[in-house]
Amino acid sequence: MGNNFDATKATLRKRLLQQRQELNPDLAGKWSRWAQMHFLGSHGYLQSSSIALYAGIDQEIGAKLIFERARAAKKILFFPRITGPGEMVFMEVDDCESMIPNRYGIPEPVLGSREIAVPDLDLMVVPGVAFDREGFRLGFGGGYYDRVLPRLRPEAISIGLAYTFQVVDKLPTRAHDRKVKRLITEQGFIRLNPEGD
Q1: pLDDT of 16-33, one tens digit each?
Q2: Backbone angles phi, psi at 68, to 5 degrees
Q3: Is the entire prediction scored with pTM above 0.85?
């Protein structure tokens, strides 16, 4: 059972990553902007002051536009920094150019930046290779967000950003897998199944 489960996830991950990397860069940029604009118009964003973002790589839907607009709106922005296997913290970033790539090539805040406790965040934007219609996500298998999401306070919002082709009907899941509360693509909000929150 375990081998089939992992193989299914690995196959899906490989297929969707390949599909993402084969996107026309101009189209990827356009879709990324559209998804970010939907996010910036959302009630959850407008009501939040402390927001965790991520640095997109390899044609992921990015968060640069969100960062620029949120900074202009005087919101406080945080990005993850890996501290150990499956563990990360969120640190304040005033300038995206100040971040440095980690061993995975993902830009991170520099050491010494102000750290925020996860329960103090109002909103967390969550990356993923895939999401399903209940809000479950498929990442790279490190379990970082599965450990962080349960630490958000109940009223905080978690939002997944993805291209429409990254949204599948049902992902294989285990008990420790965590859902996002909202899901946004270039086409707008995806209605999650009621059991998805």
Answers
A1: 989 999 999 999 999 999
A2: -65, -45
A3: yes
